[in-house]
Predict the structure.
Amino acid sequence: MAVRTFSRGLKLDTRKRATEGKPVEPAPFPRQVVIPVNQHFGAPNKVIVAAGDRVTRGQRIAEGAAPGPMTVPVHASISGTVKKIEPRLQANQTDGLCVIIEAGEGEDPSSAVFMPPLDPLSGAREEALQRIRDAGIVGMGGAGFPTHVKLAPPPDKAIDVILANGAECEPYLTIDEAVITEKPRTLITGLAAVMKITGVKRAIIGLEDNKAELVPVLEEEIRRNEYTKNLDVTVGLCRTLYPQGGEKMLIKALLNREVPSGGLPMDAGCIVQNVGTLVAVAEAFTLGKPLIDRDLTVSGGACRTPKNIRVPIGTLITDLPPEFMALDNDRLRKIIFGGPMMGNAAVTAAIPIQKNTSGVIFMTREETLADSEGPCVHCGRCIRTCSCRLSPVIMNIALESGDLNQAVRAGLMDCVECGSCTYVCPARIKLVQRFRVGKQRLRAAKAMSQMQTRAEKKQEQAPPPPEKVTGSSNPGRA
């Protein structure tokens, strides 16, 4: 089997040995969960339960605050009582509204009520999309984009291939590998459901070549699965190279297509779905199960029991019993939610696991780098490494000078924030963090401009004020 790849990128130490080949272990059900109300990219949700309400695992507790496609509901992940609804710290280091559910003494937090099963291939397209939305499924690779929206591209976007993303290029993380190993049938069923919804007859499951042993497992399931008859489903091997798991890189490697500047995978004729998302899609149909559990990797040098685990969404790692998840707090220096290249550093482990949390990494001093920034030496390493073929040094100069337009011209909005430029920079400049802040500034500026435009239009449409009457107050005077 040919091994394909993209240009540039990094050859990293994968650091996956601690959890590689380990099964997914279900964690003991916690007595309390802290469930963020908004766990997706899109419009905000509103809470539809109140403190004191009794809720059941699988019950909807939050949904879209306004009509529109860019929302997905959130469900209770354990059965219990709503204790509080209040802001809590989340993995992005901002406070977000959360629903705190607690199971009382004698209650079974695992008791659940799901939706009725639905055949993924026999129903109408709109019914299938509605099931995926009702299940609260979002992209589980990190972005959290609503899956039902991704599977319904505009009519002018011709999609001819689905890519199942199992590359998992981030160091430490092995949860995708574990899910593929344990649930190949569920994965293929979810992929077939997505192909039925989109009407696409061709799909490729992308893996890095450090997971080549999974190829025969998947190929055997493709041959046996009743849902893949008359479908062209294959496995494609890519070189183990960071960031191979990025959508743009995977499309380039497997299809030799380019996503245009400012575009999306659908502009290259394809849809990319993480393998964990496809498993969630299958379970929403075959089990009627909403997205209420999350499989993730917990690893790092300060984790005494590195493993792949399954927890209810909203679980705090600190609430897991020490015999299941033990940490070496004396050696702990840094906590990362996600992978070490693209994840977010956290000040505490008492942060809820969300739908898009692929891992939590507990790092020692030896695994971290805390050098202070120096001046840019204009070496060009960031340019030679950038897998999107951008000029990070030019973007950084523009942002430092406050010129957002120049930063955009240099490729700011095409940056995938993979962190490769930061990794290779000899001056230790935190480039990717600056690009994230630059994007936030740009979005804020656009929002302010839109508000001003709306205010001007409102002023133009307002009726003119009544004319002021002038003249003498004495009608008898000339």
